[in-house]
Design goal:
The protein is α/β, with parallel strands linked by helices. The protein has 12 helices and 19 strands. 25% of the residues lie in helices and 22% in strands. Strand 3, helix 5 and strand 4 form a beta-alpha-beta unit.
Length: 430
């Protein structure tokens, strides 16, 4: 402790700040439950540590608030008192907010908290809002035109249709946005032309049929990553809306729920395509025609393909693809085989799935792995030792999600890894 006591407060505070990886929960009043966690543990060590801990603004600038904790009026009142204290301690430092409003319970105190945060909107740097009450979006409406430092925004839930949809229309530094949902009746307006990353989730066909999407797509002049998602209500297999592709010259990463959506884009810089298939169909997913058409009109080179789907899919010959990711973790099972022989430059393959040792998915996964390795002409361990030329496929990563605390890789998969050295496994908790 003698050596620590000689460390200047300026260095101590920087160390504390680097350790602060989680936001401070303004709604958690019982700090004794977290006395071994940062930041509270620091303040309990000694007076020398407590003083810089309390007085260093960046430590207090990342805040989480949820009305789930507003059990009664006295509790809500204390939450608001602490929120005001933390905002005061944060000084003029840029704020990182994570705010959730779910119910009308103790509405007055929740509105008061939102008004306190709105008064500091000139300091917002990142803001995540889950607003499932119309009045909540109305409470932050005073922020409109007062967001000079906002760079990252995520907003989910309802909106006051009368006057809240344009809160974030003027935010000169906003470049990253996540909007869910975005529909005809409550489509948030953002400074589309300056965004570089955008995730947009819609929940009805009318957004497309009324021309909202075709009209705003050409405004994404600077977009580099665009993720277009849906709740699974759009009919991609039927009479899908068609319109002229929007030229997005900066676009590098694109996520779509179905190959048909690729017809909306012309993207010469595109490198990565992600398919997040929310539809529950049994027939295979044919991506070859739409990808080939996109490549032809855009003159782009697709380096990475990713599928989050339980369906079989047909890729066709794509000469530039070097990385393939197949995510079965949210689907009904693992497809019985993966044929990657049509991807001549494939170097990296990742398979993600939820599995247990007794499930049928294990057998399907083993078949899929074996088929993939053979179709990619990957030499076995014995062939490598005999001097057989090594194929292009450098690594196959299999991520296995388990419910057990200490998951064990099944023997059948370990045998595959032993036979083909390029295969590696990672286990994670579901």
């Amino acid at each position: 402790m003698a050596v620590v006591s000689e460390i200047p407060n300026e260095i101590l505070t920087e160390i504390f700040y680097l350790l602060c990886k989680k936001p401070i929960y303004a709604c958690e009043l019982n700090n004794s439950c977290h006395k071994e966690d940062f930041p509270w543990a620091v303040g309990l060590v000694c007076r020398q540590w407590r003083t810089p801990f309390l007085s260093y603004p960046p430590i207090w600038a990342s805040l989480t608030l949820s009305d789930d904790y507003f059990d009664d009026k006295s509790y809500a009142k204390e939450v608001n008192r602490r929120l005001a204290l933390y905002l005061k301690r944060s000084g003029g430092h840029p704020l990182r907010l994570d705010i959730s409003v779910w119910s009308d319970y103790n509405k007055a105190f929740t509105m008061m908290a939102l008004e306190m945060l709105s008064a500091c909107s000139h300091r917002w740097q990142t803001a995540k809002f889950e607003l499932f009450c119309d009045w909540a979006s109305h409470s932050i409406h005073p922020c409109k035109g007062k967001l000079p430092t906002l760079e990252w925004l995520k907003i989910r839930g309802a909106v006051d249709r009368n006057n809240a949809w344009d809160i974030f229309e003027v935010a000169p530094r906003l470049t990253h946005a996540y909007i869910e949902p975005w529909a005809k009746d409550y489509g948030w307006i953002l400074p589309w032309t300056q965004l570089t990353e955008l995730t947009l989730t819609i929940n009805e066909d009318s957004v497309i049929e009324t021309g909202d999407v075709p009209n705003f797509l050409p405004m994404l002049h600077n977009i580099k990553e665009f993720r277009f998602c849906n709740y699974g209500e759009m009919d991609f297999e039927g009479d899908f809306p068609r319109f002229a592709p929007a030229p997005l010259n900066q676009l590098r990463v694109l996520e779509v729920p179905h190959p048909a959506v690729l017809s909306w884009f012309e993207a010469p810089s595109l490198r990565e395509i992600y398919f997040t298939d929310c539809q529950d169909y049994d027939e295979p997913l044919d991506v070859h025609e739409q990808i080939s058409s996109l490549i032809e009109r855009s003159s782009c080179r697709i380096r990475k393909l990713s599928f989050e789907s339980g369906r079989k899919f047909y890729v066709g010959t794509l000469k530039d693809v070097e990385e393939l990711v197949i995510d079965y973790s949210h689907s009904r099972g693992v497809c019985p085989s993966i044929d990657i022989s049509s991807l001549p430059k494939l170097r990296l393959l990742t398979i993600i799935c939820s599995i247990d040792e007794e499930s049928e998915d294990l057998k399907s996964l083993m078949n899929s792995l074996t088929t993939a390795l053979k179709s990619a002409r990957v030499p076995t361990r014995s062939e490598c030792s005999s001097g057989t030329p090594t194929g292009l496929l450098e690594r196959v990563t299999v991520e296995l999600y388990y419910d057990q605390e200490q998951p064990k890789i099944p023997d059948g998969l370990l045998k595959i890894a032993d036979e083909w050295p390029v295969v590696v496994f990672r286990t994670l908790r579901s």
